[in-house]
Amino acid sequence: MKKTFLKFWKSYFNFTKGERNAFFALVALILLVSIYPLMDIDAFRDHKTDFTKLIALAERAGQDSSENEIIESFQEYPEKNTSFSPRKFRFNPNTATVREFELLGFRSYIAKRIEKYRASGGKFRTRADLNKVYGIDQDLVKTLWNDIDLPETLEKPVQDERFQSNRPVKAKQLIDINTADTTQLISLPGIGGKLAKRIVEFRSKLGGFYSLDQLQEVYGLKPETITMMLPQLTLDLSAVRPLEINKADFRTLDEHPYIDRNQANAIIQYRKQHGDYQTVEDLMKVVALNELTLNKIKNYIKF
Asked: Which of 42, 88, 92, 171 would suit a FRET pair with 208, their CA atoms being 20 to 30 Å apart?
């Protein structure tokens, strides 16, 4: 009887090694599912920043806090506060921090651009100098005009007559960006041999600059460098080489920085089918030319 029972037990409950492993894995899974509802899953989730204290500080600052309190509050909470309204307080562009510029309403990248300009040796001498920062909001500068801790104009220093020279003072020579060679360009602040060469090469491909804003398209030329250059630059539009749209071949059109290969081919094919272009409106009929491209090339086109 006992042998019969053992034989019966072994025939139904004797597991292979693989079956035993599967059995224990199943038991572990059942236990995990059973205790899952008891686990505090929220503890493993990223917590959200509590802005309650920041909002309270902003409201207090709006009532009677000083400039320093506002700055300290935002330094304590470095996250970007998009709901914060620009404030007005007296500041000096030569010493103001990036955070102070942001509190005044300047965009972050403009504030950092000003900081880089100062780090590279740039200095603001009058209030109007702030408008020379590339891309700055001039309407905002006008709003903050009376709070800028700089003179409106530079006063001429009073010289002792004993030390005055009779020799004429040479005016600072302006450099024409459309005719200057690399030697002249190197004399500009922040411009070395490589950048001077890039400016000349890009100018040659364009046919000349029709706006100083085009300098930002020169590879490697930083906005803060452009800002330092602008006071010493002039622009002679008569030096711009026109693009004769009715005579230009494929290679000439393709080499222009504002026209790609497909557009060059489309311009020629449309010209072959419909005759010479008479106005910019005719070019608008070329499907491959979008409005952005037309706005760029219209200053060069000659019919």
From this structure: 171
